[in-house]
Amino acid sequence: MSMAGREVSPPAASGKRPIDVVYIVGTHRSGGTTLGTILSSGAGVFYAGELYRFPFPIFDPGDPGRMCSCGAPVAVCPFWAGVRADAEARPGLLPELRRGQKRFEAWRRAPLTLLRMTRKDPAIQRHAERMEEFLRIVADRAGASVVVESSYSALRGMLYRQTDLGGGRVRFIHLVRDGRSFFGSELGPAYGTHPGSPWQRVPPAIVARWTAFHTAAIAFCSRGKGTYLRLRFEDVLLRPKESLRAVQAFLGVDFSEAIRRVEEHQPIAMNHICSANRARLAGSLTVRPELAAPSPLSRAHSALFWSMAGWLALALGYRPGSRQKTAVPVPPA
Ligand SMILES: [Zn+2]
Asked: Which SS3 state, helix, strand or coil, does residue 59 take?
């Protein structure tokens, strides 16, 4: 539907080509890598992963051990090395991007950032333009007209709305995964070079983060007709045809080949994914329905979860005890 509209729409006054952002909002460990990989099978779509990790820490200070899904370290992957070269050719782009992230994207700065957004503050505008510039470099390198980003932060997603994207649009997919599974995986070992501060992994803080991020996603991103779709990861796993057809209708992109592959448990190719779940290291992704079972929690953790976040879990369609009996503890894909 909308793709056809897009092709005939005139370029923006800036003369830049339109780039659409599909922003996956919610929390980490929600299946964003799986969804992004599925979406990247659509024509003209590139899944860029967690773009907030650029330039820090992926380009600067750089992580020699970070691998791209293509099998090369990110530092020498032809795609990301090309993105980096293009970005470094723009004076000040990467340092300014980093400064803006620290200044406007940190959660403790959220009230001030929101205030500045409503006032169309020039400094916010400038940061959003820098974000667009980087996004455009990625899109140009990938030959894409749609970039999928799974940075999850509602605040960052809103910043894209401050730019014109050459006439492109920002659309949000609010990806929700059972809070018990989020809780269970956050209790497990931390990985990566920047796993966050230890207080984030205290049980009440884990549940509070799940609640806060999803509440923020609903509060900030669900406004605007045709720009918000809520999707449960468990539905993608258990009812792929139904749920992915809803995504197809929402984005106006054909995903029928990916839907078939998900249904038949066949691998889906990953194209230069370097900032997402470690599942990327396999180079392709096979969707495993068994991940839909919620993580088994101890009685104390279960009581903590339902007392703190039960209202939201119920509103999102989760029920106590559902499928617990068949839970198979497996790492997230
Ligand atoms: Zn690569």
From this structure: helix
